Amino acid sequence: MLPNLELDAVREEALYCQRCDLWQTRTQVVVGEGDPHSSILLIGEGPGENEDLTGRPFVGRAGAVLDKALEEVGLERESVYITNVVRCRPTLVQGGRISNRAPKAGEIRACEPWRWLELNLVNPKVVVCVGAPAAKSLIDPKFKLTEQRGQLFPKEDGRTYIATLHPAYVLRLMSADRAAYNTARGHFIADLRSAITAAR
Ligand code: URA
Question: Would the pTM of this model clear 0.90, i.e. be above it?
Fold first, then answer.
């Protein structure tokens, strides 16, 4: 794999980021990983507990769903670049329990410079927005995932953007509604296949 020294420097600098309050509760910053010159970049919502502990994106249960889907469409995880709209775990403390929450608009904004640098230094042909927060941040603030997932959006930066369902959503359906799970997983796989075709 060809190194990307500029990206390495950015990732190193991001590890000390204090651009929003999430630095106070994180264990560590979770920067992107994978092929630093990949033609496909996947961008999720933000680190959860496992990502916060390991410092790697998509390594928890949702990550396992993603890994299986990548395998099914013939992509090695190491051959794509995987990152998130925020790089520190957003948490909620309730009754002494810590849980994940969606990132706030201000946190997403604060993390934008890192996203911009990662995107421009990896320089992918296709950006796959994994879940609504990424689609709203990178494609259109009014993006409707249920209606617009799977569509290709060519943008002025020369890249093609596509949004797909979040694997955590697919996972939740697995025990709740088997038929809906099969449909959602089928969409997830189809969207990844569309991304591969667009990246050729
Ligand atoms: N969900 C995300 O959106 N990103 C991760 O890295 C893990 C779970």
Answer: yes
